[in-house]
Amino acid sequence: PHAIALFDYQASQKDEISFQAGDVISLEKSVGSDWMIGSLGNRSGLFPVNFVDQPMPEMPAAASALVGPRCRARFDYDGGEEGDLSFNAGDEIGLIERPSEEWLKGQLRGQSGLFPASFVDVIEDLPPPETEAQMFFSSAVDPSLPHCLALHAYASETSGDLCFNEGQLIQLKERVDADWLKGSVDGREGIFPSGFVEIVKDIVNEDLPPRPSSSLGTVTALHDFPGQEASDLAFSAGDSIVVLRRLNASWLFGKIGSREGEFPQDFV
């Protein structure tokens, strides 16, 4: 894919390229909605997209944290009606529903609305339409067991976390602590923040068998952690740590022998 320069551009940073109006630039990838990486001759670098003609829609774009049904915008769309969803070329949009053949409903940056289907390329399509009863009593979630409804999409690159989209039903497995839950959806299992969901049927003691242990497992230290606060658990690389609970997305609470304390997850 390539683009033709509409105006002269003089690079102001080392990682940018300069060009003149009329130059043909080979496109490599998008960097956000305002910049691209391309090459001209033996030079390669960043340049602003508004200095060239419309990028080729099939150009590779940066990876996204979105999972499930989603699409990528081919062109800018400025919704002119209430209930429309505006976006820029290259944006990835979570799909919610298909009201008609010509229109889609999606979510982007906390906003949801309608947009023309011809303005996007579908990456993962929505499942076939189901009746309301089929949608609620999906085989993926047993409504007789504890479950919750996702109020917001949750995307995480942390191993062991469960990612999901807004509106999905999640089977609840256990309460990790006051702020985190463990559940499963679409054959995947992991933990997620309780603030992202609404409990439909809560966990009670008789719903699940008793846990054999109060710990979440054992981890091995990758680096030395001297600890900076009295509540921290200091350790050396190679130490084995029993994880007692997760404090948040970045910190854990555990023990080594008789010592207990907090430590960063990235160190183990």
From TrEMBL:
Coiled coil spans: none
GO cellular component entries: ESCRT-0 complex
Domain of life from the UniProt record: Eukaryota
Source organism phylogeny: Eukaryota, Metazoa, Spiralia, Lophotrochozoa, Annelida
Name of the protein in question: SH3 domain-containing protein
Keywords on record: SH3 domain
Domain SH3: 1-57, 66-125, 143-202, 214-268
BP terms from Gene Ontology: protein transport to vacuole involved in ubiquitin-dependent protein catabolic process via the multivesicular body sorting pathway
Pfam families found in the cross-reference section: SH3_1, SH3_9
